[in-house]
Amino acid sequence: MQRAAALVRRGCSPRTPGPWGRSQSSAAAEASAVLKVRPERSPRERILTLESMNPQVKAVEYAVRGPIVLKAGEIELELQRGIKKPFTEVIRANIGDAQAMGQQPITFLRQVMALCTYPNLLNSPSFPEDAKKRARRILQACGGNSLGSYSASQGVNCIREDVAAYITRRDGGVPADPDNIYLTTGASDGISTILKILVSGGGKSRTGVMIPIPQYPLYSAVISELDAIQVNYYLDEENCWALNVNELRRAVREAKDHCDPKVLCIINPGNPTGQVQSRKCIEDVIHFAWEEKLFLLADEVYQDNVYSPDCRFHSFKKVLYEMGPEYSSNVELASFHSTSKGYMGECGYRGGYMEVINLHPEIKGQLVKLLSVRLCPPVSGQAAMDIVVNPPVPGEESFEQFSREKESVLGNLAKKAKLTEDLFNQVPGIHCNPLQGAMYAFPRIFIPAKAVEAAQAHKMAPDMFYCMKLLEETGICVVPGSGFGQREGTYHFRMTILPPVEKLKTVLQKVKDFHIKFLEKYA
Amino acid sequence: MQRAAALVRRGCSPRTPGPWGRSQSSAAAEASAVLKVRPERSPRERILTLESMNPQVKAVEYAVRGPIVLKAGEIELELQRGIKKPFTEVIRANIGDAQAMGQQPITFLRQVMALCTYPNLLNSPSFPEDAKKRARRILQACGGNSLGSYSASQGVNCIREDVAAYITRRDGGVPADPDNIYLTTGASDGISTILKILVSGGGKSRTGVMIPIPQYPLYSAVISELDAIQVNYYLDEENCWALNVNELRRAVREAKDHCDPKVLCIINPGNPTGQVQSRKCIEDVIHFAWEEKLFLLADEVYQDNVYSPDCRFHSFKKVLYEMGPEYSSNVELASFHSTSKGYMGECGYRGGYMEVINLHPEIKGQLVKLLSVRLCPPVSGQAAMDIVVNPPVPGEESFEQFSREKESVLGNLAKKAKLTEDLFNQVPGIHCNPLQGAMYAFPRIFIPAKAVEAAQAHKMAPDMFYCMKLLEETGICVVPGSGFGQREGTYHFRMTILPPVEKLKTVLQKVKDFHIKFLEKYA
């Protein structure tokens, strides 16, 4: 934070001309009578420059929407302008955005949302009664019976009750308390809010935040913003990206030399790595957190996305309670869910929730205070979250269609997970662990020494170089492993499996052809 | 940031029993076979406590949803439980939440939103064609033609174009560039994002952020979160809360002793103070920012809320351009708008935009990077913003109804602004400046010395004491002036004028009766 030269504001010539140079309305000219118009000069020094800006923000990286995605946008514009490419469209496989990939919204969810948005529709015979019932319940809990009012900063009461009931069902009866539920603007908002509260200290007592490597780069970005210390623990690629507690021990031991490790982040099912943690592994992690006095963050947004028949999702909350009161009344845990993933894929609504366990009552007050500064999460996103946790049940009018739609999405995802794993593993120089869950493949790619040299000549990470070439030659946009972190000398990329089956097959074939050519070129 | 004792984690006994104590499911008991259940003990020390938490977050205050609002919630619960009070309902006049106060949504806006939410409705004859046209345009610009996809982090392209076209119309032809428009999660998000980028330095070169006193407490809260320095400039209460540039000069001069003043925040029309700045005043402010090399933040969310016949809204952007190229190609400005205020009052959708002027191209890149970490603003809020800036025009089917609804809301607000000012000024010991704009009264109240003593005995600010008494005796919830800042020795409260006319009259009468009784009691 110390910047001795902060007062020195270095000038930079902007690359674009001042907009005023383009057109000057006569109304404007007229009204400027009070001050005489001075001769036009080139812009003077800017106040806000790369040199003067917040250095912690400058240090933030976020690969999922980083340079490769900007390049993809440029290529799309070139295609629109008719510039010839070896492909006709850009396929944005960089992000888990189901509906952008053609997945249809769950009908029931959108019906309830439309009813909430425009309550006149409650009189329409073309909407089912169970959807109307849900909409009425949500609206009655909203100020002025409207999605347009602010909600409580913690979220609409009845939606928090529905979330708590969902968690209790999911966890086989382990109780959940609506007071421990905070509705959020997507899971990202919850994660960054709780981290914001947790981070403190300076020098050697700065807060260390343990994250998996590979990680979802929200974590590293928020850690950088908050000027906390990122403490890496490596997932075991040779063992299907499993989390090994010995590696946690190594990481925390080494971290204690230079910071105060206080938080342990877990992503289960894994992003970008797709592993689903065993119950035993979760128990070991909780025991470790208990021993080491770590605050647990469990990112469980892919809890509905488990495909391997041998795997099951276990929530940290449930395992914590099953371990007995020594743990369940001591270990501090925040877990996260979202409307964006699962089978509904409602990313745009920015709905989510956080459940906190054993949070000190005074900290709960601090949390509500902090949330209240941003007033409330989007109420439409809260409504979407309600439908996710409170879908039609057997006997209700919409149940059959809802179940069909849900099974179709999840069944297809399971098929695509297997297909992707199988196809990647047929390519020489690509190894792909089983996609047990989530919605990404994170294959390891062999990059020949000559390609590594070429990348260095372009001042690029070797896998960024690889992904740029893939984009330029095939139109397929994936994210280099370096954006998630990986063991040194290994290279990966993350690709979503969300495209429809036939399109996904084409994508995989194209990656295969590209990879073989790439190996030949740089052999 | 230096906290020598950060590693010392002080324990606190939680006030609530661990939830595990309440019920233990048999499934849970069964599954805990792996680890032996240890005897239950009282919880050990918490990791996250008031002592160990982020001190900057602890320092945050946000009065609009602070202790008085928590108390209001408690009283509501007591009323529900049948506890007798001298009133039958709590009136939440603490926040500008139009629809919670019974204002009906603008029909056209909700029709377009419903069509976007559930596109099957595009075939329904009960929706007007102009609403369908808007909905199709928005959907075509969304990934997968769905509000459920992530948008670009800067916002949906066509909505940014519509915002730019709106600004150009509003400002009499001064051009706006869609590249300078960033859609946000309400205005609060835009304001805190740009402040986050602006803040840097340590010690005497920490960033100073100038804010009006009284202010909207988002500003002080974000400044505290970011560990920046709050630099107060006082609005002139004797002169209808006008902004005086000499006071800006005083504030910046004094601030330079201990920080680097880099940002000047303006709220126009004023919140909580309701003044509308004259064109001359805006010109003076811009000249001052230019001289002092300050980055301007113009919070213009009440731009549609101007009631005094003598006042007009002038945007900072327009005045900046009218002042000629010396200013318009140099002064860095970010201005903010929102779906929450105006005549639509769609607070719950969390829609907003920020327009930046003269932002360095490299900083634009940094801004998009930072926004991309949170993926995108809620797409439904973006759609709501689109309708706000692109409403029906003459000749379109919905124009007449839209205009009627808009005029009705704004006409009523103007009436209520005058009514509130007049009634408050009839009360001895209350003085209220004209409510030229926005949606609040911020009357000055006389608090007798005996009441000040009584407040001190309760360890409360005198106006907090006053507002608590008002709440307890009348059910009316307003926010003490100390939550916004005020000159020492003066006392105020903020009350929204949003209740329907008849209800507002009752509220004002109750405040009057309370105030007279209060003066008598503490005479």
From TrEMBL, chains A, B:
Coiled-coil region list: none
Example of a GO cellular component annotation carried by this entry: cytoplasm
Cofactors: pyridoxal 5'-phosphate
Start and end residues of each stretch annotated as Disordered: 1-26
UniProt cross-references to InterPro entries, sorted A to Z: ALAT1/2-like, Aminotransferase_I/II_large, PyrdxlP-dep_Trfase, PyrdxlP-dep_Trfase_major, PyrdxlP-dep_Trfase_small
EC number: 2.6.1.2
CDD domains referenced in this protein's UniProt entry, alphabetically: AAT_like
Root EC class: transferase
An example Gene Ontology molecular-function term: L-alanine:2-oxoglutarate aminotransferase activity
Enzymatic reactions: L-alanine + 2-oxoglutarate = pyruvate + L-glutamate
Record Pfam families: Aminotran_1_2 (PF00155)
Domain of life (superkingdom): Eukaryota
Pathway: Amino-acid degradation; L-alanine degradation via transaminase pathway; pyruvate from L-alanine: step 1/1
Record key words, sorted: Aminotransferase, Pyridoxal phosphate, Transferase
All residue ranges annotated as the Aminotransferase class I/classII large domain in the record: 111-510
GO biological process, one term: L-alanine catabolic process
Function: Catalyzes the reversible transamination between alanine and 2-oxoglutarate to form pyruvate and glutamate.
Family: Belongs to the class-I pyridoxal-phosphate-dependent aminotransferase family. Alanine aminotransferase subfamily.
Subunit structure: Homodimer.
Protein name per UniProt: alanine transaminase
Organism: Marmota monax (Woodchuck)
Lineage: Eukaryota, Metazoa, Chordata, Craniata, Vertebrata
